């Protein structure tokens, strides 16, 4: 609990009063040799947290990691201080030079081990081929089965930006025999009280009007009719307008 980001004083006070009672109950179960200084330590943790705050701002793990790094610089055990000073200065020099020598690879500016090259320009190809990835180990080649190849092909098409518009809008006749319906459309409208409300409809047909070098796509939907009271705005049992 003392390692949490946020500490509550009332919780710490309750823990401080309950820890001695818990230790007394443990003394009835375990032998005296079990109770060393580490078992006695929790008595002071709650009071220490109330005085110093969360322990993550005071613990020694970062300092111990830094001391381990300094000890790894020792090459001559007869002069450990000199080895640490020399290694520290060399590290600072490399850090300073790496900010100006961009063409030289150092441990500060070299690419990551698992860097896959990032996004590349498609150059007229599909956006799916912009990032091919990189293997972490030795690849193994094998032939895909028919069902695996079909699943992979469908997955690639559904995650390609160029094919996405053709998958988003389906007519009602196309989806009427399918378990998954994807023919619904929604438009955000505004009421007389200047409140936003969602109006839902069903896509029945997609029309493409071709002009000279241009084209416009229109959607024909089953929509509400504000001028006819019998076909106007309706709210179903689920609250959908």
Summarize the structure.
This is DUF4218 domain-containing protein. The chain has 241 residues and is an alpha+beta fold.
Characterization of the model:
This protein is α+β, with helices and mostly antiparallel strands and 241 residues long. Among the domains are: 9-59, no CATH class; 169-231, no CATH class. The chain contains eight helices and three strands. The chain has helices at residues 9-27, 37-40, 42-52, 61-71, 80-97, 146-158, 164-168, 172-175, and strands at residues 184-190, 196-210, 215-222. A hairpin with a 5-residue loop joins strand 1 (184-190) and strand 2 (196-210). Helix 1 (9-27) runs antiparallel to helix 3. The radius of gyration is 34 Å and the shape is extended. The two termini are 49 Å apart. Residues 3-114 form the DUF4218 domain. It holds the Pfam family DUF4218.
Name the descriptors.
single chain; 241 residues; alpha+beta; three-stranded antiparallel β-sheet
Residue stretches low in confidence (pLDDT < 50, at least 5 long) are none
Identify the strand order in the major beta sheet. 1-2-3
Q: What's the mean pLDDT score?
A: 76
- Percent helix: 25-40%
SSE class: alpha+beta
InterPro entries: DUF4218
Domain DUF4218: 3-114
Protein name: DUF4218 domain-containing protein
Pfam families: DUF4218
């Amino acid at each position: 609990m003392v390692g949490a980001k946020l500490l509550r004083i009332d919780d710490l006070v309750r823990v401080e009063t309950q820890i001695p009672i818990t230790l007394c109950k443990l003394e009835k179960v375990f032998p005296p040799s079990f109770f060393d200084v580490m078992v006695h330590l929790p008595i002071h943790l709650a009071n220490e947290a109330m005085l110093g705050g969360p322990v993550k701002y005071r613990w020694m793990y970062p300092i111990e990691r830094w001391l381990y790094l300094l000890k790894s610089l020792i090459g001559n055990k007869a002069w450990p201080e000199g080895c640490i000073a020399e290694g520290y200065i060399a590290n600072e020099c490399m850090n300073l030079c790496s900010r100006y020598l961009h063409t030289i690879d150092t441990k500060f500016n070299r690419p990551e081990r698992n860097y896959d090259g990032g996004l590349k320009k498609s150059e007229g190809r599909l956006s799916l081929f912009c990032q091919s990835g990189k293997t972490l180990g030795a690849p193994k080649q094998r032939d895909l089965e028919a069902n695996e190849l079909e699943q992979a092909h469908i997955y690639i098409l559904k995650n390609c930006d160029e094919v996405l518009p053709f998958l988003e809008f389906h007519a009602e006749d196309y989806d009427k025999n399918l378990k998954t319906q994807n023919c619904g459309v929604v438009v955000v409208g505004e009421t007389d009280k200047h409140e936003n409300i969602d109006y839902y409809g069903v896509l029945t047909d997609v029309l493409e009007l071709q002009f000279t070098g241009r084209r416009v796509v229109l959607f024909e939907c089953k929509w509400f009719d504000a001028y006819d009271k019998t076909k106007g705005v309706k709210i179903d049992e689920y609250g959908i307008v």
